[in-house]
Design brief:
Length: 445
Amino acid sequence: MEWNRLISDKRFGLEHYHDPKKSATRTDFRRDYDRLVFSSPFRRLQNKTQVFPLPGSIFVHNRLTHSMEVACVGKSMADNISQALRAKYATEPWCGELHHLGDIVAAACLAHDLGNPPFGHSGEKAIGTFFSEGAGKVLEQRLSERQWADFINFEGNANAFRVLTNRFKGRREGGFAMTYSTLASVVKYPYESLLAGKKGKFGFFTSEVESYQRVAAELGLRRLSADGEPLRYARHPLVYIVEAADDICYEVMDLEDAHKLRIITTAEITDLLLGYFEGERRSRIVTNMMRVDDPNEQVAYLRSCVIGALVERCAECFIANEESILAGEFEGSLLKNISGIECEAYGRCNEMSWRKIYCASDVVDIELAGNRIITDLLDILVNAVVRPELNYSRLLLSQVPRQYDVEAPTLYGRLQAVVDHISAMTDVYALDLYRKLNGSTLPAV
């Protein structure tokens, strides 16, 4: 793969408007970022669970604050990498295009969670298991193998690509009409749902295969699958930066949230975060940390130091492995390929998260509640699109937002409309609709 093709400001669905010679203070990649910030799907992220239940008296991260922080970290990392690459390719006529890496990555980071359903990762699992082991399993024989794989492996990242590119009913062609480079940088797992495997990871639904092929062809992404096999591509190189920024933020910020909620102690988190440093640098950090008395401020300072260190190591890893990344041969994530003290410290943080955070009672409670709510909503709405002739179905489907085509000519299309609707819901909206449909609350008379 080649940088001069990988960086393209051509807009998906608006290719006929593209003018490669135009000049503007605000680049098309920056427009991508701004377009996302002002969009409804991005705004809804403020009311979607990240890990912990949405805040009461203590504010913890939601999907929106997480995405904004990932964008900050990703841009910093991409800017470091861009600087090194511009020095390496200084004599190339396209060298100036490398200035855009930071803006492309920032926009992709903002968009990476747009397709996530309510109630965190348990929401993804609830949708998949509804079809694989729940009431939706009876529909398997009525769908193709590829279509069925889309539903039983439902994946938020693949859904983000759909949200960004699909022409929902009444909307414009090209969806968000993002630049090709930003779209490719969002897709972490660039292969079909048939290749999802045990982890259930993939990058685009059957309905978006042609869209991703267009993006891949424009950018010169390397195809890894043979003709006749399920599609699989090498990642766009910037995906590695988006992924690393995401991993850094959820690992470090989940720990900070857990400290605020008193799931882990100040001593525990201080020990974990200081583990990223040694020698004189560690001593200097400890001295600076002790200049404030507030434990939350101490942890915030340590968190910033750790993020800075990981950004540097990941940028160095990307630059060192640039050739294998461009060849589509790089294996694993950037964080899994760093070494030394940072690698060991990250492993200890990850172990603590699984041992004390992700199994915490509040986290499990929201997973249980979210699973029940999403499963019940799917059961009711799927039955409505399967049997639309029923009076209750007509009443129910009349309340679904117009953009979701619950009258699509195929069962696959109607089921997608249901999943589109539910995955776009906020936690509060899903809970409110669940209560209404189960008769727990009634409209005011």
